[in-house]
Amino acid sequence: MTLATEVKKLTDSKPFYAVAGVGDFAVEKLRELPEQLLKLQSRRSELAKDLPVKAREYADKAEGFARELPDKARVYADQIGLKATEVYEDFATRGRKVVSKTTGEAALELEEVSEAAEPATATQTGTAKS
Predict the structure, then answer these.
(1) pLDDT in tens, 63-79
(2) Model confidence, pTM
(3) Separation between Cα atoms, residue 48 and residue 46, nearest integer Å
(4) 76 Cβ partners below 8 Å, 6+ apart?
(5) Burial 72-98 (b: 16+ CB within 10 A, else e)
(6) Which residue has the higher pLDDT, 121 or 100?
(7) pLDDT of 24 above 90
(8) Which end of the chain, C or N, has fewer beta carbons within 10 A?
(9) DSSP assignment letter at 108
(10) Cβ contacts of residue 17 below 8 Å, gap of 6+?
């Protein structure tokens, strides 16, 4: 098989689009990170004051969660398969859009390059003598 055939087979697969979608999602979230860090830094002293109280609250909640864990784990296990499929489909759809946009831009660039590389056509200069 040729390399072009292999690439075509890869780019027509749902996992390829899902990976592209995950990458696009990661870039989107990383771009939001500096703003979120600034917000947290401005609340740092407020959060530090509340820390001992919150730690006690979470310790009490942890005991309750530990008792409920086996039952909730069964419920979550049933739901996780459905949610994983839904997320996978969302990432594949997002990836298709990203790849489609990117390949469309690349096709336009190739078209421009090919037009610029076309040889000039000869033009007739003067009249023919009989």
Answers:
(1) 888 888 888 888 888 89
(2) 0.51
(3) 5
(4) none
(5) eeeeeeeeeeeeeeeebeebbebbbeb
(6) 100
(7) yes
(8) C
(9) H
(10) 91, 92, 93, 94, 95, 96, 99
